[in-house]
Every structure is written in C-alpha cells, then in structure tokens.
Amino acid sequence: MDVDLLVIGWGKAGKTLAGRFAAAGKTVALVERSPEMYGGTCINIGCVPTKDLVVSAEERRDSDDPQEFFRTAVAGRDALIGTLNAANHQMLEKPGVTLVDGTARFTGPRTVVVDTAEGQVELTGETVVIGTGATSRRVDLPGFDSPRVFDSTTIQHIDPLPERLVIVGGGFVGLEFASMFTHFGSKVTILDRGEEFLPRGDRDVAEAVRQTLLDMGVTIEQGVRPTSLDDDGTHAVVHTTKGDFAAEAVLVAAGRVPVTGELGLEAAGIEVDERGFVVVDDQLQTSVPGVYAVGDVNGGPQFTYISLDDNRIVWDAVMGQGTRRRSDRVAVPNTTFITPPLSMVGMDETQARKSGRNVLMAKKEVAKIAAMPRPKIVGETHGLFKLFVDADSQEILGATIFSIDSQELVNMVALAIRLGAKVSDLRDGIWTHPSSTEAFNEVLGTLEPLA
After folding, report:
1. Are residues 211 and 262 part of one domain?
2. Per the annotation, does 255 bind a ligand?
3. 235 an active-site residue?
4. 141 is a domain residue
5. Does 176 show up as a binding residue in the annotation?
6. Conformational region of residue 448, where left means phi above 0, alpha means psi within -120 to 50, and beta covers everything else
7. Residue at a domain's end among 203, 220, 254
8. Which residue among 58, 353, 428, 444 sits deepest, i.e. has the most Cβ atoms within 10 Å of its Cβ?
9. Is pTM, for the whole model, over 0.85?
C-alpha cells in the first residue's frame, strides 16, 4: 500500500497529523503495535492515568482502608483510560485512514514491513512520521528482574498496595510516585544516587520540595547506589552502597529510553544519537528526506504538549509555508505533580544571575501570602512563589511556582513571557477571589534587586 502519510506510533503528534492529513483529502496509514496504546503514552500510561491516581490519592482519608481505596482508585483509572483509548480509535476510523495493528520495521528509506496477526503488510509513504515514544530504563543489576520490581507503567496496577515501597531514582517521576503512594498509604523511601536533592533547581526550591515530602512521611536517602536485590518471596531487599532497604515493592524510576530497537532504522539510513534517540533537524526531519521523528523518540522534552507542537511543525513543513521551527518555542512550562505541584517556566535564579541582566526577584512562601486564601481553604499551604523580572524592560523572565494550582498559574506566566507583558500586568491584574491567581497581586509587590 502506498499512502501520502505513513505514521508509526499512535502518539499525540502522529494521531493529530493523521487526522489533519485525512481531513485534507490525503491517504494515511497509522501503525500501532499495541491495542492498549491507541492514543499514545499520555492517555494510556503517562500523564492522564497517573494524574487520575494522584487526585484519588489526595482524596484518601485516614479512615479509608488503603488496600480497598487503592483498588477502587485503579478501577476508576482503568475505566477512564478505557474510554479515552476507545475514543482515540474512533477518531481515526474515517475515510482515508488505514489503521494497522502490528510491529513495523523499515526495509527502505520510506518503506516498512508490518508484522500483523494476518501476516506481513508492506507500506510506503510519501511522508513518514516516526512517533514510537520512549519507555522506562531498566536497571541491569543482579536481582532486578524480580517480580517485585516495577516501572512507572506496571506499578499503576500493583496488587496489593505495598506496605513499603522503595523508589530507585530521585528525579521528577520518582518524586511524583513517592507523593502519590505516600498518600495512598505506603511507606515510601527514595534512593537517590545524587549527593544533592534536585540538583538542577534552585536550592531554596529544592529544600521546600524536600521538606514537603518529608512532612508527608517520605524518607529520602541521598548518595545511594543500588548494587543488587534479593527477593525471599515475601519482600525484596535492595542492597546499596549505604546499606540495605527492605520493601514489598521496588519502583525503578531511572529515566526513559527511546523505543527504536525493532524499527530497523539502519535499513532506512536514519541516524540516531549516542543515546538511541532519532536525530532530527530544526523542522524535525531525520537524516532521510521526507521522514520525520516526533514526540519522545526524537530526544526533545518528553511532554505531550511538545508532541502536539511537533505536529504543527511537521504539518507546516509538509503542507504549509515551512517556516515553523523547534527553535521558535518560547517559555515552555513544565509541572511535576507532587502534592502540591511544582511548576516552572523561563529562567530560574541561577539562569537569571548568569543572564547579564539587571534582575528583580519576588519570593514568598505560600503560607504567608495573605491575598491568597485558597491554599488555606483546601488545606495545603506548602510551597513558595519565585518570579524574576528584567528591571529595565519590566518584562517577566521566569517563574517557579510550588503551590496548589501551579499547573494553571504557570501557563499564565508563560503567556505573559511570550507576549512580552510587563510585570504590572500580573501584579495589578483583577482576578477572581478566592483564587490562586491573586497571589500575583501580593507576591509581585515584593520585587527586590537580585543581590
């Protein structure tokens, strides 16, 4: 079969491009190797299901039985994801789109063979989009093939809920699951190989996050490297450079690697980097003309909204004016959904100091923001606000918001940065009450030169 667009992997960018090309009258083939991944990582095993579990965990009360509550939460998660999964399949059941269940491998620059239940299918696309995503990195140490060892996907269906959970990895994924499982009722220990907690962030923010996790009951061990694992049938013992840690379950949160091993990229002449990610240019085109790589597989920021923007860039390159670039992106926010969520956009304090600008900083702990009663209303007053402003232009340079609703507030700051808004636009804005947004009224009134 020859098509105008061949998409490998049902992720955010790929499915959006498939729908757009079909609506434009083009022929499309979309290949997905797992029916459980219709719609991509985000809605099936990533953003949506984990955040659904986060919200459920936050709702648990001391009077709730942890095991029963967790099983109910997982059942609710599965019902939601099943609905979204089916809806994504239906969205692409349209004229011009051929859906192929199977595993694809390249046999030429723009040709693949797909192994399906009915046999092999050969597909050739005028334009090819690789969107196979990334998967959890495995730990290649003795004993870590135990059934008590989970990754961020498999642990979402762990049964029973572990009384004790050891998390190997102190990055954002590990912190998210630590917060979640602590609220579900597990005793969580984080084993972080780094000597410093959240080393890439501002020290005061890192300390605020660390203290919040400690307050909720998480144990954090720094400078710890696992060496092996033993499983006696009732629990696992993680042996490390700083002693042994016992638990009913172990979560490995040691980063993610691209899903490219079965694609046969070498047969197409498609280059990958030293980590295995597909090499792309500023328009997401690979080393083979007409072949693009989108989403997590191209080594860029692993967020579904980046994948959505990848779709815009490829669409513009193939069907538009060809002016969009990855380098166009400004003020891309991110959020880690611990409780409360940690969100960042633009410069942090270290970057602001190195910028060479005349910088003002506003900083305030959430518990001390009088104009923001919402945290007290919902009973979560951990966190702080930090914002940075160019003293000469009065433009906002960046923000770190560790607070309830920060995943929404950071988007407002991102928009302000993109539009070149002045600090007064946020500081003197008229916001609803009680809301988290009105924190800007008070916090931005405390701007002082960055010493």
Report:
1. no
2. yes
3. no
4. no
5. yes
6. beta
7. 254
8. 444
9. yes
